[in-house]
Automatic annotation (TrEMBL):
InterPro entries: N_methyl_site, Pilin-like. The chain crosses the membrane at residues 21-42. The keyword Nucleotide-binding does not apply. Keywords: Membrane, Transmembrane, Transmembrane helix. NCBIfam families: IV_pilin_GFxxxE. The keyword Membrane applies. The lineage of its organism: Bacteria, Pseudomonadati, Pseudomonadota, Alphaproteobacteria, Rhodospirillales. This is Type II secretion system protein.
């Protein structure tokens, strides 16, 4: 007789072939754990992307304020503040090097200033940028 004729016969333990309920439950449990891990990885990735986008937005606002120094914000020693679209900003302009702060200018030629701009988001996150600018002392 061939093996095909014996395929409907119960296995040696007396049970028909196939998966038991326990094997199916274990397989579903393994798949559920893997799915949870995969969803957590996606969630972490989305949160990181959102945080990076928010930080990039703050950097762009700070760069915009730096670009305003000398145009909309006078390039003179002092602190300038403002509020725009829910964001607070602060520009601190000081002579550079710092030892030059208390000294009278030797001439009315161009001087170097340290410009520090800080932008504060409505949720309290901060981003600061610092640069040096050349300008006339008035």
């Amino acid at each position: 007789m061939s093996n095909c004729a014996n395929s409907d016969r119960p296995n040696r333990k007396g049970f028909p072939g196939g998966f038991t309920l326990l094997e199916v439950l274990i397989a579903f449990t393994i798949m559920a754990v893997a799915l949870v891990a995969l969803l957590q990885a996606f969630s972490t990735g989305l949160a990181s992307t959102s945080a990076a986008e928010a930080r990039s937005h703050l950097v762009q606002r700070a760069q915009s304020r730096l670009a305003d120094v000398g145009a909309g914000i006078p390039l003179e020693p002092g602190v300038h503040t403002g509020h725009e679209d829910g964001f607070d900003w602060r520009a601190d302009i000081q002579p550079f090097p710092p030892e030059a702060q208390g000294q009278e200018p030797q001439s009315l030629g161009p001087k170097l200033f340290r410009v520090e701009v800080t932008v504060i988001a409505p949720d309290g996150r901060r981003q600061g940028l610092t640069t040096l600018r050349m300008g006339e002392v008035r």
